[in-house]
Amino acid sequence: MNLYTRRKFLRTIAVSGTTAWAASRLGLLSDSGLTAGLMTSQGGMLDLSLRAQMDRLSLAGRPATLYSYNGSVPGPRLEIRSGDQVRIRFVNRLSEPTNLHFHGLHVSPSGNADNVFLEIPPGESQIYEFSLPRSHRGGTYWYHPHVHHLVARQVWAGLAGLLIVRGELDDIPEIRDADEQFLVLKEFGLDASGELLTPDPTPQIMQGREGDLVLVNGESNPTFRIPKGGLLRLRFLNASVARYYRIKLEDHPMYLIATDGGPIGEPFELRELLLAPGERAEILVRGERSPGRYYLVNLPYRRFNMGMMGEGGMMCGMGMTGGRPSSSAEPIVLATLEYKEGERTLPLPTRLVPVEPWPEATVQRQLVFSHSMMSMGGDAFTINGSSFDPERIDAAVRVGTVEEWEIVNGGGMMMMDFDHPFHIHTNAFQVVSENERSPRFRAWRDVVNVPMGESVRIRIPFRDFSGRTVYHCHILDHEDLGMMAVVEMRA
Ligand code: C2O
Ligand code: CU
Ligand code: CU
After folding, report:
1. Looking at the predicted structure, is the pLDDT value of residue 314 above 90?
2. Sheet order of strands, 381-383 included
3. Whole-prediction pTM
4. Pocket of ligand 1 (CB under 6 A)
């Protein structure tokens, strides 16, 4: 660690869910029953039933009343390959409407495919069906509910799962031989009896809700084994409603190999990995240190300024319990890597999967994300001055064209400012510049953070699919407060 000596680091570290954490350090917890299942496509077809339901579960050793998919939090991991067919018999056993969105997939947004305008009423079911194009990039995608006004709360309650597309990256020999782990980063806010805490409209919902029980795959500080001399592939999903993760691994560089939209051209060395809500990334870690235990930590990240409130710089956000400062103000241990004997030495791969240069754009647009306090309790978060209206088409685009969008973080009133992670459905994009700076490497993305006072330019090729879908801020409370708009793709 550069910032801390190990001991100092340990002294200053904040512990998420202290008791559970201490118990798991002592090996007292097993967390059985929460391990997400795995469902893999067979013969080009993934056919499954998925139920959204309310459950009483054990979460990091504590009782918790949550929403789950098929009884697990996070939901089962689905694995498919490009060209596969997917058929999901979805049942809503909740007492409110919900639906499914396949975040990051390049599939149809219409009919009973990735259609976020469908709402499945309580007690009803829906068959979701789509096929992945043969050319679909492999990568780390995910599924979650997407009914406007209910998204933040339902994801907060536990609804999210990984959707993995296997592809070219998985066939690179060093990566095929690497150990692989999935890390769903998702925190919870529970009271003593395990009921979900309800955040206050101001400031918690305006800021975006955060909880103080920060977990990986529903576990507190799980241990992952890294082969001595070998490679460990870590695949991260930020499934939190609003929390940003700024990830650092003690004593080890991280080699980025994939972002949201799939693999990058060659490994890119990172000292820290910043993941906005909805964002994914894959890294390789080399087992090149002396055998032992190393912490994967989350460092503080300041994602908003609350003008009149929370002065002093550190109090960015009050926690959900007892008015303590949010854990986002202090480092947190997310997981531990522990060395094991490796069978053989694996080098880092030098080449991954080429990313084509961004195409020329023929249409330009500007999107200004801002908010006002005018209508507290109403929709106060806007894109180009309007809050979400499913009947209005905000951007009409032609299938087969490339557009350049400038996304401007326009701030807001009362000296309050937030970062806004931009996300669009159906088509991935490339970042052309961030506040006039060129990106450090080429990558396909579907989430890009637009920090306070900054702007980002992206190029989006609208490929294959016509129909209506959405783009929005992936701080899901902001989306529910209106920071979402409709794009219609016309053939
Ligand atoms: Cu992660 Cu519109 O979604
Ligand atoms: Cu999405
Ligand atoms: Cu936002």
Report:
1. no
2. 381-383, 363-371, 402-412, 455-461, 430-434
3. 0.90
4. 101, 103, 144, 146, 278, 423, 425, 470, 472, 474
